[in-house]
Write a structure and sequence with these properties.
By secondary structure, this protein is of the alpha+beta class. It is 27% helix and 20% strand. The two termini are 13 Å apart.
């Protein structure tokens, strides 16, 4: 099972393992771009990151004034480009006066919602945090494709001043600036919006900036469940999370097996100033693309890998390799244009990639079930609702489905994600267990044989 309590817990253990000695991070030797347009790109991206990771925004924690200011900054950038407002709120959560605007039924760049996180509440944070996604549309040039959307997205929230999920809890209420995580991804989306505005594609593009990712992909879960366009009209989603630390030209790209055509697209885009692409097939991973893949949307996630400043106050803008990020954006733009301009939609594939093997990503004995909890619904009802299951996993073979709510695992009642994690941890690989799920109002008993992570 992917990390249930926090989708970042696995990453944290990897960082501790790889950077326990706190060795100095060495940025890649990427040469500065020479052309005037590339220099302008670099300056814009740097300015976006510097502002978003500034002390003034205090780490952009979900539900904080700094998070609101970041959302307002993003919305202003979209307004400057003249992008289309399409989000229309059905209801408005409680707003902070003078900071958020929410008018029921009125088109807006803001998609307000209340972030509910069982993990955050367990750690003593407020159980309900009013926040917002930022959504803008760039219409396409081909009327025949006006209802086929490409989503380009990134989360803009970070940890704020909270030590919850931080790698440096000893720093207490210090600002975790989140320059790479994820001011870098936010800046990438803004830059792509500028580029596509200058040269539109055949298909319309939704640029979406999510809040609440650090609490469990809450913003992207809210978006796919309350999308301003039909989810089945989304042909693909490209996600940018931590793309500011390119080293040795290495770029990890998740989701290359989520569409029949995807690997070919990824490979063919890497012919100009090629990067060393590390492809990963699975579309379920620790970031917002997983919410879309759970709705059968092909996805890609761009990631320049972990580093010693992850979830620490030392993740500051001066450490971002901006010329390297420009190379990542250049590469991603070629992929986005391929998808947005090709005559036919991508063909969704259900990934059967093996589960990742990393310490801290589940029970200590490596017991594996293969469920993907829907963290956006955490705390709404008793049990654990699933966003999906990994193809070929024990959960899949047992007949567990996306949307199921697990209420009992191996004879132990499951009221929340903590009960669920504990219940799995009491078993070992090879155990046969009964899993009780609620599906369409009915209680079903399913039998699963647990596997071993990484096998």
């Amino acid at each position: 099972m992917p990390s249930a309590i926090s989708r970042r817990a696995a990453y944290a253990s990897v960082v501790a393992l790889l950077f326990g000695c706190h060795s100095a991070l060495v940025a890649s030797e990427s040469a500065a771009p020479a052309s005037a347009s590339a220099i302008a790109d670099t300056a814009r991206i740097r300015a976006d990151i510097v502002y978003l990771a500034s002390d003034a925004l205090e780490g952009r924690g979900t539900g904080t004034p700094g998070n609101d200011s970041a959302a307002a900054y993003i919305a202003r950038e979209y307004a400057t480009l003249g992008l289309v407002k399409i989000s229309r709120s059905a209801t408005c959560p409680q707003m902070r006066p003078g900071v958020r605007e929410c008018v029921v039924g009125r088109a807006s760049y803001s998609q307000p919602f209340s972030a509910h996180s069982a993990a955050a509440a367990h750690a003593g944070l407020p159980a309900e945090l009013p926040t917002q996604n930022v959504v803008a549309e760039l219409p396409g040039t081909d009327p025949a494709m006006r209802s086929q959307y490409l989503v380009i997205g990134a989360h803009y929230d970070h940890l704020g001043r909270s030590p919850f999920d931080a790698m440096d809890p000893e720093a207490k209420d210090a600002i975790r600036h989140g320059a790479d995580d994820n001011a870098s991804g936010t800046a990438a989306v803004l830059e792509l919006a500028r580029r596509f505005h200058a040269h539109p594609a055949r298909r319309p593009i939704l640029f979406v900036n999510f809040s609440g990712e650090e609490l469990g992909d809450l913003g992207s879960e809210y978006f796919v469940n309350n999308s301003p366009v039909p989810v089945d009209s989304i042909t693909a989603m490209l996600n940018f999370d931590m793309v500011g630390r390119l080293r040795n030209d290495k770029l990890i790209v998740y989701g290359v097996e989520t569409a029949t055509e995807m690997r070919g697209i990824v490979d063919s885009a890497n012919t100009v100033a090629p990067l060393k692409i590390d492809p990963v097939g699975d579309g379920f991973g620790p970031s917002d693309h997983a919410s879309f893949y759970g709705k059968k949307v092909p996805v890609l996630h761009f990631f320049t890998d972990m580093h010693e400043d992850y979830h620490r106050a030392t993740d500051v803008s001066s450490k971002v390799n901006v010329p390297g990020e420009v190379r990542v954006i250049d590469y991603a733009e070629r992929i986005a244009r391929d998808i947005a301009n090709r005559p036919a939609r991508l063909t969704y594939e259900r990934s059967s990639a093996p589960p990742p093997k990393m310490s801290g990503s589940g029970p200590g004995n490596g017991t594996y079930f293969g469920s993907i909890p829907d963290m956006g619904s955490a705390g709404d009802t008793p049990g654990v609702k699933l966003a999906g299951v990994t193809a070929g996993s024990p959960a899949d073979k047992a007949g567990v489905q996306a949307g199921d709510i697990i209420v009992d695992f191996g004879g132990k009642a499951v009221k929340d994600i903590y009960d669920y994690t504990d219940a799995i941890g009491t078993h070992k690989p090879g155990d046969v267990v009964t899993v009780i799920v609620m599906r369409a109002g009915s209680r079903l008993a399913l039998t699963a044989t647990l596997g071993k992570r990484g096998s």
